[in-house]
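sorry for the late reply, my laptop died twice this morning and i had to redo everyting from scratch. anyway the thing you sent over, i finally got around to it. pasting the sequence first so we're on the same page, its 238 residues, then the predicted structure underneath. double check i copied it right bc i was rushing
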Amino acid sequence: MTLRVIAIDGPAASGKSSTAALVARRLGWAHLDSGALYRAITLAVLDNLGEQGAGSGERWSPERIIALAEDLPVRLVLVDDVFRPEVAGVDVAHAIRSERVTQRVSEIAAIPEVRHWVNVQQREAVQGHARGVVVDGRDIGTVVFPDAPLKVFLTASPEERARRRLAERGGTGGRGGGGDAELRQEAEVLEARDRADSTRVVAPLRAAADAVILDTTRLSLEQQVQAVVALARTRLPG
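ok and here's the structure:
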């Protein structure tokens, strides 16, 4: 039986989640944002194990994090073809986007035991959905679903990704005034995140050898979606 998974990877603010969600909707498939699960675990850790982190001895030990995720639990719940993150039965889709979570999620996601736990949850979720699932993240095509029939790696220049991220937050994004400085600062933040993600020992950010590379710097969201949908209908008909 063919694994009905479309793996969409790429750096921060490359448009992965937005593209994946719309591709899933066009195909009538489910959407799974792996980053949401990492963020949900991070939120659970901050709320239950404290803010200090790995520098405080066993406070954020992998064993305690996994035990917390299992006990609360932290999980993915399928609602209207979208896998929604929940912590202790509460929808945290909005709460996980807070700045305090954003600042610490990379730290949690770099822990090998956490990545293994998240990968297991994702594979179980996909197995329970017969039509197909579009999954986005940073190691979906290389680690989580290396046998996915379609792998897409989205890229865009740091400046364009910075514009998109600022637009999400309502920033000026380089449109005069203090926008240029704001744009440069955000681009530097994203480049630093790229370096951290691509050089980490566990599941570094990289395109799978058989991934389709899609540079979205000059593409609209609709164009990105159309490109991936066309590939999907060729490789995963029906």
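Residues 179-199 form the longest helix (21 residues).
thats about all i looked at so far, will dig more tmrw
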